[in-house]
């Protein structure tokens, strides 16, 4: 059997495999997807897939990453507006591609599965969360946010409630998004409270 590990990858083969992966995720979810089913749908062999991706998790994460690539950080000159654009834009992209249920399903399936959680975190989530970090760092630099603002905390305050609301309710309107971003902004833009000075006890005499 010929071995073509050293041969250049054919873009059309990659596209067929990734497209088949997305189609099967829509139909069966992560748990029901198999490399064999992807190979059959893409009309390639299983070794063809394994030469490109070592396992199902890596294949699924790349398929999602290509289908919904991260958007560049908006820069309107106002950090609060940038965060609104960023959050609404991300949701719009997921809704427009019809992949919102797929992404949320894969996120849910990654719970307790390190083989999926690690690549999903490193290759899908972090590049998108890094966009929030870019906007927050720019906001700190221009004085829209306090200097001691933690970008990690900002990412949690912004992304966490959006994902939670979507998972629990199954839908997310622009009104919901704007409310959640405004709530996060109120917390982030509030100056840190300094510790109250301790009152000295009155001295006798």
How would you classify the helix and strand content by structural class? Answer: mainly alpha
Say which CATH homologous superfamily of the largest domain is assigned. Tetracycline Repressor, domain 2
Number of strands: 0
Number of separate domains = 2
Question: What is the fold-level CATH name, i.e. the topology of the largest domain?
Answer: Tetracycline Repressor, domain 2
Strand/helix succession: HHHHHHHHH
Shape: elongated
Question: Would you write up a description of this structure?
Answer:
The protein is mostly helical and 205 residues long. The mean pLDDT is 89. It has two domains: 11-60, Arc Repressor Mutant, subunit A (Orthogonal Bundle), CATH 1.10.10.60; 68-189, Tetracycline Repressor, domain 2 (Orthogonal Bundle). It is elongated. It is 68% helix and 0% strand. It has nine helices and no strands.
């Amino acid at each position: 059997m010929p071995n073509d590990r050293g041969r250049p990858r054919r873009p059309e083969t990659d596209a067929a495999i990734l497209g088949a992966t997305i189609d099967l995720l829509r139909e069966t979810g992560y748990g029901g997807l198999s490399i064999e089913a992807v190979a059959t749908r893409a009309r390639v062999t299983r070794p063809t897939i394994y030469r490109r991706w070592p396992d199902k998790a890596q294949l699924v994460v790349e398929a999602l990453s290509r289908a919904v690539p991260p958007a560049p950080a908006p820069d309107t000159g106002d950090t609060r507006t940038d965060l609104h654009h960023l959050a609404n834009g991300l949701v719009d992209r997921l809704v427009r591609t019809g992949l919102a249920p797929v992404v949320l399903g894969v996120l849910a399936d990654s719970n307790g599965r390190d083989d999926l959680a690690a690549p999903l975190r490193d290759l899908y989530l972090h590049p998108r969360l890094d966009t929030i970090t870019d906007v927050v760092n720019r906001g700190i630099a221009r004085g829209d946010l306090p200097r001691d603002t933690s970008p990690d905390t900002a990412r949690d305050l912004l992304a966490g409630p959006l994902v939670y609301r979507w998972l629990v309710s199954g839908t997310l309107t622009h009104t919901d998004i704007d409310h959640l971003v405004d709530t996060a902004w109120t917390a982030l833009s509030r100056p840190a409270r300094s510790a109250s000075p301790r009152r000295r006890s009155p001295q006798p005499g």
